[in-house]
Amino acid sequence: MKFENSLSFARQLDKKDSLKKYRKQFLIPKHKGKPCIYFTGNSLGLQPIKAKKIILEELKDWEKLAVEGHLQSKRPWLYYHKFSKKALAKITGSFPEEVVAMNQLTVNLHLMMVSFYRPTAQRYKILIEAGAFSSDQYAVESQVKWHRYNPDSAIIEVKPRPGEFTLRQEDILEEIKSHGDELALILFSGVQYFTGQLFDFKSITEAGHKAGAYVGFDLAHAIGNVPLNLHEDQVDFAVWCGYKYLNSGPGAVAGAFVHKRHHQSSLPRFAGWWGHYEKERFQMKKGFVPMPGADGWQLSNFPVLNGAAQLTSLDLFMEAGTSVLRKKSELLTAYLFYLLKEADPSEHSYKIITPSDSAQRGCQLSIMVWRNGKKAFKKISEAGIVADWRESQNPNNPSGVIRVAPVPLYNTFEDVFRFSETLKNSL
Ligand SMILES: *Cc1c(COP(=O)(O)O)cnc(C)c1O
Q: Is 29's pLDDT higher than 90?
């Protein structure tokens, strides 16, 4: 599409947007009486209007039924983890029995590593992208130590080339190949939280399997953001959180994927009663018998109140359709990319470090501001734009990064236009 740098053009795009009605399904915080421009759906997605209603229903059932609510409430609490399965399967490109909503992201990452990080003296290394989200780094480091290996030698970080900010696909594959017979596990982000780079699940998984390693993905910034085909791509496991693009509320229930081919295997795991064979769960017998599928990795009973909110958000994803959402998302972010390039074609003030190719990114753009970025960010915030500021990870470098994530469910082309104008005027 040929874009134009004008408010009227942005508004035209909004007018033609077949998803525009979904904005009304969310509660948008106000700034000086007007809805703010909310670009941090990658951090905490907005509240769906229906979240309050469904949570109140559960509170009412708790009030009226108390313990009987496990079976007699409108959505029996005992089976709550099942209610999100179909949607989560659709969003992740999996079979329903391959996914389960449970726990929190980092907890699930540990649980998956219990099963899929089985180091031996020859094969004990974990390959991960450099600069991974802190929690993932800590999880990996502590798992390595738990198995009595040294993180310095056991963790291999794939780094961008000097002067580059994102990883080249060929470099990732080359690293996998060169460490092949030492690798126990490859753990990658689906979409990198800092740079917004979307990785190629299929080829990374293929290369990992060829090397003899398991391959898992952290989908924190990918789920609800980019198309996923976990089953077809042969990914061994994946984990995600519910509060970012899935709009399920602060601290919401997270989830995990375990590929079908592992469902009958004797992979070791940490067990709890909610993962036990359902028909016998309440017999309280000795001897753990896992539920078939991803459900067998559950530990505890389901967090109903926050899981309820997730259901309302998943309904919106299903109604809107994941491929339609992606189509708008690509256009929205491409428009933002175009406007930012128009405003600073020679990269005098900033550089977009997220890949320029739509196929290699989700909705987020990460803008590295060379100088006075924090000041500019403050001005942007004062103008009613909610974005995210990250200090440079290099102490000798005065630049920082503004991350913005226009999401297709509730952001508009006008939001994008206004942001770009505000950034221009703030620098
Ligand atoms: C947001 C995020 C987390 C947060 O972990 P929680 O366990 O949900 O607190 C972890 N890893 C990545 C990659 C994230 O983006």
A: yes
Q: Measured in angstroms, how far is the CA atom of residue 107 from the centroid of ligand 1?
A: 10
| Mutation test residue for ligand 1: of 218, 241, 245, 253, the one with most atoms within 8 Å of CB | 241
Kindly tell me if the per-residue pLDDT of 393 is higher than 80: no
Q: What is the distance between the alpha carbons of residues 238 and 217, in angstroms, rounded to a whole number?
A: 5
CA 283 / ligand 1 centre spacing (Å): 36
Domains of the chain: 7-35+321-426 (3.90.1150.10), 55-318 (3.40.640.10)
How far apart are the C-alpha atoms of 332 and 334, rounded to whole Å? 6
Ligand 1 atom closest to Cα of residue 43: 1
